[in-house]
Amino acid sequence: MPSLDAARRRLRLSDAHISVLGLLVEEERLPAELSSALAELREAGLIGDDDKIVADLYPLVSTLMAPRVIVRVEVTGPLGVSSNGAVISDEFIFTHEAWPGSTESEYVPTEPDTLVWSLARMVDLHRDFTGEVDGSEVITSTMGLFDQVVDRMEAGGFEEPQAVAEATGAPVRLAEVLAQLNCMWRITVVWQGAEEGRSPGELSVAALSVWDCGLEGYWLRELPAEPVSEGQVEVTSDLRVRRTSAKELWRLITDLLPDGAQLAAAQPRTS
Fold this sequence. Notes:
Layout: E1 3-5, E2 10-14, H1 15-25, H2 35-43, H3 58-65, E3 69-77, E4 80-88, E5 93-98, E6 104-109, H4 115-122, E7 138-142, H5 143-154, H6 161-168, H7 172-178, E8 183-192, E9 203-212, E10 218-223, E11 238-244, H8 246-256, H9 260-263
Antiparallel strand pairs: 1-2, 2-6, 3-4, 3-8, 4-5, 5-6, 7-11, 8-9, 9-10, 10-11
């Protein structure tokens, strides 16, 4: 059920609830498949009998209706893929986090100075378990071999990394690292602004893909290079990952976010 924690301005909403709110604001007809979501919003007191949203929903709905920056955080782990992120408008910032297996996400207002911290928490960025991190260590392979190693490890039977590497033809070091895999995560940032070399209205995209491998540390995927579009990666595509540190990842997450100049809207020409 959707809910509102007015004291902390938190909301629990599903994608269906968000769709209903957007359609109500736009005064468009709701399709039949959203009738149950509409009823749940009414029951929770988030919209009235006249289908007007309550005032506490205004900051979130206005942000979702006119975002300047959208951040998507995908975390792939043992329980599947969870979709989290942030939405930024001229006035407000909201982060949202899902729980694996649940259709609802928690939406929370966030201040600009804590946004990077919020994104880092979504991917469980933590201190390095080992001391010195060899940032020069690189593993190269192909996406096809990567898939074979992961499939074999997910099959359920325990095999030493050496045996997995021999069976698949993958590098032993790749099998060793993936044997410690906790999760893979990707942060994608999309914004619209006036940047050099881009036409007005063209979207800018920046992304970062990382493996969290426990005692084997963090690995930054450099190839295939992000952002990756659908259908771009094939089994023959080169794979290259580089060992990295939590400190470097904090900086890379910070660098993903556009600065004020990148976000500045193109000013209309005056005669």
